[in-house]
Amino acid sequence: MTNHFPDYLEISRHELATGTSVKLSVVKDMPNIAQHMAKSMLQVIDSAKEKGKPATLIVPVGPVDQYPILADMLNQQQYSIKDVMLINMDEYLTDDDQWVDLTHPLSFRGYMNRKFYDLLNPDLAPLPENRICPDPDDVGAIPYLIDQRGGIDACFGGIGINGHIAFNEPPEANLTISPEEFAQLPTRNLDLTRETRTINSVTVGGEISIIPWRAVTIGMKEILSAAEQHFYCNRIWQSSVVRRVLHGPVTSACPASLLRTHPAASLTVTEYVADPPDIRLR
Fold first, then answer.
1. The domain containing residue 206 runs over which residues?
2. DSSP strand E in 228-279: where?
3. Please, which domain of life does this record's source organism belong to (predicted)?
4. Number of domains within the chain
5. Is the link from the previous residue into 63 a cis peptide, with omega within 30 of 0?
6. What is the C-alpha to C-alpha distance for residues 216 and 219, in angstroms, rounded to an integer?
């Protein structure tokens, strides 16, 4: 029988990540992803503290449900993270390359305030200067800041439908960038791809017109410099994506595939993401 699809789409749950250096964990569902991610963030913060330094993390808005859980953990334990630095992966921009306003419904910075910083006991929360988002007017500030902090302890994130991490979009089909070149891309402003805008519109009722065209993103160079990589997938469409990431070619056409070049990368997925995709008309 003719195989109409890439071989990696047929990989079973039990074979997922076999033969790669990526550590795979499978949990039941979205709430379990959120719990796992919150606990992992706290573990990294705790580990850095034990080594005598405050942690520096790159963090996403997507997945998102971990933040209220982490805030509750910290409040219950009266655990101060005032010296911990959280660097957000990215933010939407206006057409003239300025951050969307904090009050914008899609602002990642606004989400962090509402669902994490504002939920923390003020005595425990990161100091304002430790709540970082890449600045579209000064993209070079991020690598300098990372250097000043002695590096990134861990990067947490999700994976887009086109394999992007943060907003590191794959090159258009008419462009060729080697994996090595792509891995060196710095923090920058960029156009979002049609695929990213389309899938992101699903979270706002499918209204693609309200998804901005521009964004600022932490670069692949900064992400891959983190000592640990912790990525999470909890959407049904990510069943195919994780197979492409783990078993397709390592290529700039699927940015998250570069996680396989990192010595300490982990991927946590739900059971339905671990199951092979059911690719047929129904």
1. 22-274
2. 228-233, 265-270
3. Bacteria
4. 1
5. yes
6. 9
Helices (H), the chain: 30-50, 66-77, 108-115, 141-148, 179-182, 194-201, 220-224, 238-247, 271-274
Residue in the block written with tokens 């419904």 = 105
Residue 213 to residue 6: CA distance in whole angstroms: 31
* Residue carrying the six token digits 């405050």: 54
What is the per-residue pLDDT across 239-265, written as a single tens digit (0 to 9) for each? 999 999 999 999 999 999 999 999 999
Q: pTM higher than 0.85, yes or no?
A: yes
Q: Which two tokens stand for residue 3?
A: 């195989």
Domain containing residue 113: CATH number: 3.40.50.1360
Confirm whether 259 is domain-assigned: yes
- How many residues in total does the chain contain? 282
- Residue 7 located in a structural domain: no
* C-alpha R_g of the chain: 18
User: Dihedral of the CA atoms 272, 278, 279, 282 (nearest 10)?
Assistant: -120
In a domain, 152, yes or no: yes
pLDDT in tens, 47-80: 999 999 999 999 999 999 999 999 999 999 999 9
How far the first Cα of the chain sits from its last, in Å, is 20
Residue 147 lies in a domain: yes
Give the Cα separation of 241 and 246 in Å (integer). Answer: 9
Residues 263 and 227: their CA atoms lie apart, in Å, by 8
Tokens of 92: 């939407």
* Cβ contact 190:214 at 8 Å: yes
